[in-house]
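Protein 1 of 2
SEQ + STRUCT:
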Amino acid sequence: MLITQSRFAAVLAGLLLGAALTATAAEPVAKAQATATAVFAGGCFWCMEPPYDKLPGVVATTSGYTGGQKINPTYQEVSAGDTGHVEAVQITYDPKQVSYERLLEVFWRNVDPLDKGGQFCDRGSTYTTAIFYQNEEQKKLAEQSKAAVEKKLGKAVVTMIRPAATFYAAEDYHQDYYQKNPLRYKYYRYSCGRDQRLEELWGKKG
């Protein structure tokens, strides 16, 4: 009888320990599920990472390709313009810290929504602007923000609002390009006339 009680005590202790470990292991999963995803195409993806990386509540940004038919496209294939993909940035964020509306505000402030042929010095369909919504709520908010931008600018906005498609991360050397190659990035951005045009559209940053 003493042996049976000992086994019972051991089993009970094991169950309690297992439950505690399970609860501990479940915590990272719960945290991971608390993030959301947004995808924006704003021309050169190098230039779309910085404004989101410095935004509180943004967990990660990834440059990549989306919206086309080619599976696992390369930069060369996308640049050739035959894949249907656009350069885009995927944003992982914490909705408790930053809203999707705020992400939209940052998007508009960093693109020329009146340009249907590309963005700044980058021309072609690969560099056109688009918002890829993940659900109906994002679609509604994107449409509302687009209407507000049209009203503000007094012109038709050509930025497309499209359902999310498979997102393919770009090659490693494209990720965090502005941090890995700061001088080249600054030269490219300046020579492309991006900031000059953004200031013309939106005014100087506060």
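Protein 2 of 2
SEQ + STRUCT:
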Amino acid sequence: MSKVEHHLLPNGVEVDYIDETHEYFINGIKYPSITELLKNKFGNQYNNVNPEILKRSSEYGTQVHKEIQSLIEMRDAGIEPFSEIQEVCNYFTYVEPIYNIQPIILEKVVVLYDQNNKPLACGRMDMLCFINNSLGLVDFKTTSSINRKYVTAQLNLYYKAACQSGYIDTDIYYDIQLGVIHLSGTTAKLIPMSKLSDEFYLTFVN
């Protein structure tokens, strides 16, 4: 039997997530993921990649992200982070101190709404943090290269959904930094991404 995760969002909405099938439900109704919205607009950026290689790459990326999250939580409890995974070590050794990143929350389910405040899609933002004392929303990537157009769209939809879901008070944080934390082999850096206008968001609504 598939395990169901229950998530209560700051705006009071409850979302059920089935990890095995990557499906999101609100009040028993299934909604597409934000990734599906992006695929519908941009196509599958990994069409030419061997499915087995893609599967291993995705699993490794998930492992890196989960270990970073776990070690951040352990550090908050007073335990010094340690990992044998190079990309994880590089995050703590280089990315956090160089870019002055202070994690706030990680791996939170968000809901994207249309203009009539009806759910449109669901997803998970990777990390809300402070970057040099300014609020930032970042996504972890372990691929060898970054598709800037796709990732810019992805981050902007996550930002919109995070605001609508109650994670970001836009009256206080009217400006926010978006970026990708790129961890691949010896690569360890924060890549800033552009914040787009609502006109961009509306292309996914209409």
